[in-house]
Design goal:
The protein is α+β, with helices and mostly antiparallel strands and 185 residues long. It has 5 helices and 8 strands. It has one domain.
Length: 185
């Protein structure tokens, strides 16, 4: 095995967060690029020599709103470029979008199954090719896909008045329950 990959910032933030929040989990790095960035196991959940595991695809974004004069009610905003077929064929159980806010040295995670993420993009008319995704997190704990929204709609997000169930990612914001369920925590 010749190491050609190193852990990136998002993978590090996810791994260190999981180790701190869920004591006893083991976090593994793959030796090759397989579409899985981290493997998380719970040795305490093992029965008859089988260990419960969950595979993660981690996507990191710096805060793209820090210097844009966006409302102070918006905590962070990330930008990702995804390939439709990479989401569709993802071997990972969960995708973790990491939004790191440099001004406060804190972060948020969007934890979502790839098929759910893809379904939301389909409902937004993104059915092939490259997907540009802008995700905002508000100070009130809401999370939104904001790509292609008008300024008035972005203002509604900042003011807590926006409604759109397809764009609303709040149920996935910092919600580690899908991981906990898979590894029997």
């Amino acid at each position: 095995m010749k190491p050609i990959f190193t852990i990136h910032a998002g993978e590090y933030l996810v791994a260190s967060h999981l180790e701190e929040k869920f004591k006893g989990l083991q976090i593994w790095l793959p030796s090759s690029d397989t579409g899985i960035d981290l493997l998380v196991t719970n040795p305490k959940a093992s029965s008859q020599n089988s260990v419960r595991a969950v595979s993660l695809q981690v996507k990191f974004s710096k805060d793209f709103l820090g210097n844009k004069g966006v409302s102070s009610k918006i905590k962070a905003g990330g930008w990702w470029t995804f390939k439709y077929d990479k989401i569709e064929k993802s071997p990972a159980d969960l995708w973790v979008l990491v939004l790191y806010r440099f001004s406060h040295r804190d972060y948020d995670f969007v934890i979502i199954e790839p098929h759910e993420l893809l379904e939301r993009y389909k409902n937004l008319g993104k059915t092939s090719g490259t997907i540009q995704s802008y995700v905002w997190v508000t100070e009130t704990g809401k999370c939104w896909e904001t790509r292609d929204l008008r300024n008035a709609e972005k203002d509604q997000i900042a003011n807590g008045a926006f409604k759109d169930s397809i764009r609303d990612l709040s149920q996935f914001l910092n919600n580690w329950q899908p991981l906990q369920k898979r590894v029997e925590l």
